[in-house]
Amino acid sequence: MYNRRKSRVVKIGEVAIGGEHPITIESMTNTKTADVEGTVAQIKALAAEGCEIVRVTVNTPDAAEGFAALRRKIGNIPLVADIHFDYKMAIAAIEAGADNIRINPGNIGSADRVRAIADAAGRRSISIRVGVNSGSLEQDLIDAHSGVTGRGLAESALRNVRLLEQFDFDNIIVSMKASNIPMTLEAHEIFAPQMDYPLHIGITEAGTLYSGTIKSTAGISSLLTRGLGDTVRISLTADPIEEVRAAKEMLQALRLRTFGPEIISCPTCGRTEVDLIPIANEVRQRIRHIASPISVAIMGCVVNGPGEAKECDIGIAAGKGAGILFKKGEIVRKISEVEMADVLVCEIEKIVESGNML
Ligand code: SF4
């Protein structure tokens, strides 16, 4: 569908990133890592929501201790240790069982420190993500390009990957993040033809729930439709569970993954003669637990309603205070406005139980 870039396969725990493998969803805890119980609870909640790789900051000796403890408590959920500034935290996290270490080359320090991290990761055969960020680009690259640029981000990633390669380490994932979408695109377009390491993609510091979701999906989708990206993180100033929900919706909308029902509902307009918005919202809420790829149309009138409803597993095309129920392209019966949500949910559950989706 999209002409996906051919990347090599790198693993984080049991999850394979790159190649033909599905594009995975990552998020990051926002608890204090030293708070083991709180962090374990959040990791488990993220995994239950569909997060496939969880990142945790390891920024202090207390956090490193917490990391070791929570590693033992979360089973085999793939766990990434996020490291800035202190390479000793990376070594501690590797020894505590991290499945991947994310280092920010702009703030990790000398080549010797990077070598120490690479050697430790090599001993445990775990991967490293070279995570370049526009907020912490190396000064010489800022000077060389008269500011922070996409080219500078790409050059930082190339330079730091080559450094790891010099240490005979090539179990690498790369990310180049900015809060600026054109800059992010430029960085990836420069980097991608030069190396085949898998790409973790995202728009950093994208903002609050609503605007950040839109900005993230605009940027990440632009990359994915160019075939760039093997694992994603939507970054929101919000509960990290929302990042996972947004990533699932985005990947499903792009038809790259399937996580559950797809609802096709119209925006309503002056023609609508039922109160459609609460009906659509109620159905969405009541089928949130369903993981099967059923298609549902909730349409306000006969202009596009029958056409959309016929293409779905189940659907309604509403009229004045009532609607026509369609199932697998056929008209079933007329239903009143008040019963629409209940009938749709009931029919959805029956179809899911039968396993007979279009
Ligand atoms: Fe309006 Fe009908 Fe289109 Fe809904 S389907 S937006 S009610 S014209």
Nutshell version of this structure?
This protein has 13 helices and 15 strands. By secondary structure, the chain is of the alpha/beta class.
Give a written overview of the molecule.
There is one protein chain. This protein has 358 residues and is an alpha/beta fold. It folds into 2 domains: 10-253, Dihydropteroate synthase-like (TIM Barrel), CATH 3.20.20.20; 262-354, Sulfite Reductase Hemoprotein, domain 1 (2-Layer Sandwich). The chain is 42% helix and 20% strand. It is built from 13 helices and 15 strands. It has helices at residues 36-49, 61-73, 87-95, 105-108, 111-124, 139-144, 150-166, 181-191, 209-225, 240-253, 276-286, 305-311, 340-354, and strands spanning 10-12, 15-17, 24-28, 53-57, 79-83, 100-103, 127-133, 172-177, 200-201, 231-233, 262-265, 295-299, 314-318, 322-327, 330-336. Strands 8-7-6-5-4-3-10-9 form an 8-stranded parallel β-sheet. A hairpin with a 2-residue loop joins strand 1 and strand 2. Helix 2 runs parallel beside helix 3, helix 7 packs across helix 8 and helix 8 (181-191) runs parallel beside helix 9. The mean pLDDT is 96. It binds iron/sulfur cluster (SF4). Iron/sulfur cluster binds at residues 266-269, 271-272, 299-301, 303-305. Iron/sulfur cluster (SF4) is lined by residues 266-269, 271-272, 299-301, 303-305.
